[in-house]
Amino acid sequence: MDKYMQAAIEEAQKGLKEGGIPIGSVIVYQGKIIGRGHNRRIQNGSCILHGEMDALENAGRQSASVYQQSTIYTTLSPCSMCSGAILLYGIPKVIIGEHQNFMGEEDLLRSRGVAVEVLHDKTCIDMMAQFIHDRPDLWNEDIGE
Asked: What are the residue numbers of the active site?
């Protein structure tokens, strides 16, 4: 398995252990992880701390050129908020663990020139499916239903 997706999965597992939603993300620039995060909506009582947003926050302030040469890895297809942030900062490539449990804004990303790759990773699929089965209340809250 790709070491960066493995790092995103580890973030997702960390979030699950904290009582949150198991979605993780890392941002990679020149072969180094510069930001990592996981969905912390439950833990922090936040309406915006999805995995990708947490990774961006933890990457700290970066120049536009850094984002424009980075790849973001996420265990689950990015929602409209996270996709908007990817577009805002000009991140050119998104590697997605899975989109079976939730299809985000992949078409929007592609339409704006972002390279999108979906790995169909079994670990990501199973982790999210189990969470949705066990905690539909938290999942539905997270996706706005």
From this structure: 52
pTM, to two decimals: 0.96
Residue 59 has pLDDT above 90, yes or no: yes
Q: Which residue has the tokens 């020139």?
A: 113
- Average pLDDT of the chain? 96
Distance of CA 104 to the CA centre of its chain: 11
Question: Exposed, middle or buried, 42 (CB in 10 Å: 0-12/13-18/19+)?
Answer: middle
Neighbours of 106 (CB within 10 A): 18
Residue-level pLDDT at 144: 63
Q: What is the CA radius of gyration of the chain?
A: 14
**Spatial distance between the Cα atoms of 142 and 138, rounded to a whole number of angstroms:** 6
